[in-house]
Amino acid sequence: MADLTLAALTKVYPGGVRALDSVELTVADGEFFALLGPSGCGKTTLLRTLAGLETATSGAVLLGGTDVTAVPPGRRDVAMVFQDYALFPHMTVTDNIAYPLRIRKVPGRERRERAADTAAELGLGDHLGRRPDQLSGGQQQRVALARAMACHPRAFLFDEPLSNLDARMRLEARTFLKRLQRELGVTTVFVTHDQAEALALADRIAVMEQGRIRQLGTPAEVFRRPANTFVASFIGSTPMNLLPGTAEGGAVRVADTALPTPEGLALAEGEKLTYGIRPEYLTFHQEPVAGALAGEVRVVENLGSSQLVTLEGPAGEVRVVVDEDTALAPGTAGHALPRADRALVYRDGELLGPPGYETPATGTRTP
Amino acid sequence: MATSPPEPGGPPAGAAPRERDAAGLGRLGATAFVVPALLLIAAFLVFPALWTIYLGATDYRLTGLAAVDPQFVGAENVERALDDDGFTNSLGLTLQFVLGSAVIGQAGLGFAIAWVLRDRRGFGRRLIEAMVLLAWILPSSVIAFLWIALLDRDDGTLNALLSTPGTAWLLEHPMLSLIVFNIWRGTAFSMMLYAAALGNVPPSQLETARLAGASSWQQLRDVVFPRIRGHVLTNLLLISLWTFNDFTPFLLTGGGPEDRTEIMPVFIYETALFGGELGFGAAISVLMLLINLVIAVVYARLLRRRKDVDR
Q1: For A53, which of B207, B222, B223 is closest by C-beta distance?
Q2: What is the distance between the alpha carbons of residues B187 and B133, in angstroms, rounded to a whole number?
Q3: Interface size between A and B, measured as CB pairs under 8 A
Q4: What DSSP character marks residue B275?
Q5: Domains along chain A?
């Protein structure tokens, strides 16, 4: 078990693609850490550089305080679980789990015992003699986890751990993974493109774009106060409304409506701003309300316990989450009133905070 | 085919017979399509094979009385062949040639090149592939000439390179020369087959092995070979048979010096056409065919066993 530090880590692929651009990052001992971003943002390269499968162009990787930048993957004492689990098809579950032990020349009896113990911990006790193609997706994933656990590495690296499971299994596996990580207490870094997965699993999240970390923080910080419009549009299962507006008398005027803003913002009169509000933090009214965005209901999407309503008005498209009891039909008029304390104001794409508020981009871990 | 319209909800009437006749040609139509191909196979494969078996049981000769009126001698030719030093010598040489140049040489070198090039892209890889392929696609006669020039005693390129003037490679090391020649000539096929096979090995499995600390050899043993075992067997089957039946060495050495490179096809050629003993030559051909069959059956068995294990 160890903490992980990346110092000015840069990776440039032959051909000039800059996959990582001087990334600075510290993952605390025992932390469950998510690398989140759209495809091509460098998150997988970062994970592979941690594993030693890619060599950094410059910068350093520190594991438990020692520089492992030049150490080959086999001697870093980290275990990785790949998206496709990478189980060896010709080996039984036992042999798969015991493989790292076999490479370390652990005697056959002992490694079979350890494999059986680990398998039993993960509920695979009845499947020791099977081959991977005789297992379900969830069981295969657990075999891969068991193989990673069996040699007690200092850190786990998971590449898209849940993406090969079907939707139902995914939720189950998510809870399972989180509990397992808690119990083992091993520093774990995982990569995902699914913001819901990152929010649900991680202690802290790094949101990446084009080889840079755009925001680093706890799930709550990243969700509530996205540091920039990129993170704001990326996090959240329904994308945040980002409305162009201008400052006017302490409020933000979008189209012809003055929208309420959180307290303590210093806004220069007339400057161009972006007003961000999540669909969940807008309340829907059928009658006109002061400070509400007006529009016509265009689309109603049923989300089960709520509905996602798209209003089209002078401010453009605005999405609102409305509770399930409100009967709505496309074509009717609607008004969406923002919650002032949940509204976010961005200048040049960066979040404006009240004076004295710590800028979220340097957010520290809150246990 | 006339069928009643299927009843709603029920199984369509006449479904079963239609399944057996997917193309809807009927027995006569299907036969008409197959017959021309069968006739060609019969005329050019089955008949010559049977004819060879018949010839092998006669004392048929190229010239003389037996050419006009060959006599049936039964298994006499086969018995004679098995007692003949020339035949056993030739069989031994052929095995050396097949093992040395195909099983060890071409398969080994082909795999090595494919393994080294597996992650490479760009000019270097294309250059090596082009060179290896060139040896494979050039006509045998051209290649034979090139190698005679390379190995020549007086002005040979190899002697110039190694500063060993006066070494007559084809006379002093005839079988070794042929083995090296055939490795060079035939590696391309194995290289391409293994390159394709290696493309099927999931990178994540190799990386898992690397993260566990596996050496290159351990990665090959634990990840690559189990994965490409079928490709290896197919490759070995094909190149063994091709090399077994290869006649190109004759163009280099003519079987000499002193029968030291008289591999099976050359031996048959010498016996049947220079010696004029067509019947005896045919009998040896049949023996050779049987050996080929044995090779094929052994590999097929190994392949099938692999599938059983997989299941």
Answers
A1: B207
A2: 8
A3: 62
A4: S
A5: 4-226 (3.40.50.300), 238-352 (2.40.50.140)
